[in-house]
Amino acid sequence: MKFSDRKTRLFQQNFFFRFLATGLFLALPVLTFAAPGDLDTSFGSGGKIVTSLTNYLDEPTRVRIQPDGKIVTVGYSADFDFADAVSFLVRHNADGTRDNSFGTNGLVFAAPSLFEDLSFNDFAISTDGKFLVTGTRFAEGGDGGQSSLVIYRYTSNGTLDAAFGTNGVITTPVTGVSSRIVLQPDGKFVVAGAIFRRNSFIREVAVLRYNSNGTLDTTFGTDGKTNTLLGFSLFNSVREILVQTDGKLLVAGFASVLRYNPNGTLDNSFGANGIVQTDIDNQSNRVGGMALQPDGKIVVSGPNFAVRPFSRLFSSIVRYNVNGTLDNTFGTGGIVRITDPPDPFSQAGIAFALAIQQNGKILTAGERNGNFAISRYNPNGIIDPSFGTNGVVITVIENSNASEISSLALQADGKVVASGPVNIVPDVIGEGSDAGWVRYLGDSSGNDANFTGGWFDPAQSGHGLFVEHLDGNRIAAGWYTFAPDGRQTWLIGVGPLVGNSVTMPMLRPENGRFPPQFVSASVVNTAFGQMTLRFDSCDSGMLSFAFPAPFGSGTMPLRRPELPARITCSTASVAAAPDADLAKRADVSSDALSAPQPKATGPVAALTGSWANPNQSGHGFQMEVLSGDRLVVTWYVYTPTGEQMWLIGAGPITGQSATINSYVRPAGGRFIPNFNPALITVPSIGTLTVTALSCNSARVDYEFGAPFGSGSIPVSRITSVRGVPCVP
Fold first, then answer.
1. Based on the domain organization, do 503 and 540 belong to the same domain?
2. pLDDT tens, position by position, 232-288
3. Within 356-455, where are the H helices?
């Protein structure tokens, strides 16, 4: 049920009632806000793990997440000339500690026979929790012509499954050097690799399908195998295999994408006779990663090289339509080109690994200047400025002179796990690397709830709450209200959303001054108890608080009468309020709401969020774009004598600016339970104009009466609100 028409009209007619549902500046020195791309400090040591698994080169090749949240990684360990190569599986708990219930102290080694080497390339997790690990076994010191494809099956505790093949291992005599694996819904599994053509060094793509018991599936290709010869490529390896919902198989490698029918024949409806090869700027292109979108479009990433002299020039992301044609709605003609700084020691670039988040944003990862590097793009191929610094996160691994991400995995909570080799200096044996993992905060992939916007008790018009639903499923909130003695006050907090509620410690900033006398160092952030928000639907909830005297403890029912522009909300999976609390809720609620798209375009349409001058941390602005191209701005600041003050108003958006001709300083309130909306006054103190300069920068100009005066403040974005992407 929607908010009643009568209440909506009253809401629009009352000046302050329209504006009280705005927000709070949240950028104080001691209060930090997690954003996508930030290190997850609950993982390992400050978000990182670096482990020496052997005394050799440790190369993680694939990381995946179990349904219970545990992190499994496979790879190989070898000395510098790839002699004495063994392989490993390692499992970590969700917090990054080794899972001692797996193998020996969380680690399993697989060693080949004498005078053989073994490298694990990929694995899949079956529905019964077993691990199917694919790799290459080859004669020590030999070449790919002396190798075999091997598949190991481990139980959930890391022991070999004796019911599979011979003592848990099957060997297929193909002369392969790399392989990838995917599970089909029917339990069969498919392996793709690069193999040598018999009696020659010409490589081709081999795809093999196995029954669940490890025997070759003779209904696929010829006796379970199919080989495809491609043109010459400097990079003869298979990087990814995926299964579509219709059972067709996608294989990426050799600078190509191939699609096979379920019976193993090439799909002639895809590209040219089942093969797509995209020439990007006449360079030698290498596939790094591939991912499928829910709409069936195919995203491929990788580095691009000049041949003479051999050097990496740039990286690229390419998106194909279902039929293999370039998707012209993505990047430029279906291609995004990424400038990479030159690096003679790495072939990865920043687009080697690839993953697509639940919100459709595209993650690419690899290295930049010898460090872990990850970048994020919006679904249209434009870099996402809300991620890291201008869309890129560089993670320096301490004491490392060369590290790169080789694999990405997305957790159910939206967090991003990256793994890859890390070269530590000094290396005691003079060669090799350690295994490294980093976990980044991401976007929540839970239900489609979005609680951003103004919340208040309709019976107490004149004070309220602004909530920001941040990426990473965290809630930032500010309560702009009045102290028991009638002076304005504002309280701020942040915390993780768990189910349908969030509990957060609150702060009450004090001792600032109105610009230009503001000094960040003078601001004191006083701990002020805690507050809990419970969201019962998209537009109703409950606030409870426990604050120091004389504020005390209490509750307040909440309503959200209007969503910010672009925000949608569905709370089908949010728990309903207990029956005992129903009487405290507003008389109407909705579990599905959506706000119209603004007519405004460019950065101004995405101003919703918190903004501040980085050189004046401790005061700032909360901005909210509403339908009808209205901008609401709340300034959380201080009087010239050092008391807390909040100013509020709204104005129409024109171009990339909005001017508020009557910016008000509400007065007359008292903290609940003594709040009386009839006593609220809203005297204007002047005008304020906001001009959006880019997705992450803006300017605020004000002309106020004495004692405040006039001025101009450059501001930067502090928070990234979920569901409000910025398109420059």
1. yes
2. 554 567 899 999 989 999 999 877 899 999 999 999 999 999 999 888 876 667 788
3. none
Hey, how many other C-beta atoms are within 10 angstroms of the C-beta on 357? 19
- Residue 367 and residue 354: Cα distance in Å, rounded? 13
pLDDT tops 80 at residue 590 = no
438 phi and psi, to 5 degrees?
A: -135, 140
Which pLDDT band, with edges at 50, 70 and 90, does 330 fall under?
very high
If asked whether residues 346 and 451 sit together in one domain, one would say no
Q: 478 and 25 in contact (C-beta within 8 Å)?
A: yes
> What is the residue range of 289's domain?
281-432
Separation of alpha carbons 17 and 9, rounded Å? 11
Residue with tokens 């990054």: 96
Q: Which residues contact residue 432 at a Cβ distance below 8 angstroms, ignoring those fewer than 6 apart?
A: 55, 56, 57, 58, 79, 80, 423
Rounded CA gap, 130 and 220, in Å?
24
CA distance 627 to 714: 26
For the CA atoms of 313, 319, 325, 330, the dihedral, rounded to the nearest 10 degrees, stands at -100
Asked whether residue 77 is domain-assigned, the answer is no
**DSSP summary character for residue 2:** P
pTM, two decimal places = 0.64
- Find out whether 727 and 382 touch, Cβ atoms under 8 Å: yes
pLDDT single digits (tens) 94-103: 999 999 999 9
**Strongest mean pLDDT among 239-243, 357-361, 466-470, 603-607:** 239-243
The enclosing H or E element of 386 equals none
The DSSP call for residue 591 is S
Looking at the fold, whether 515 and 623 belong to one and the same domain comes out as yes
581 has pLDDT over 50: no
Q: Do 133 and 150 contact (CB within 8 A), yes or no?
A: no
Same domain membership, residue 474 and residue 378:
no
Going 675 to 678 to 684 to 685, the CA torsion angle's sign is: negative
Most confident of 114-128, 222-236, 423-437, 439-453: 114-128
Return the structure tokens found at 621.
């602005």
Percentage of the chain beyond pLDDT 70 is: 82
pLDDT surpassing 70 at residue 140? no
Residue 12: which H helix or E strand, with range?
A: helix 5-13
402 and 534 assigned to the same domain: no
**DSSP H or E segment with residue 608:** none
| pLDDT, mean over the chain | 83
Query: Is 556 in contact with 460 (CB distance < 8 Å)?
Result: yes
Q: Which residues pair with 213 in a beta bridge?
A: none
Shared domain for 352 and 485, answered yes or no, is no
Same domain? For 307 and 453 the reply is no
Number of domains in the chain: 2
Taking every pair of Cα atoms in the chain, the longest distance, rounded to a whole number of angstroms, is 92
Show which of 382, 406, 432 is a domain's final residue.
432
Whether 418 and 506 map to the same domain: the answer is: no
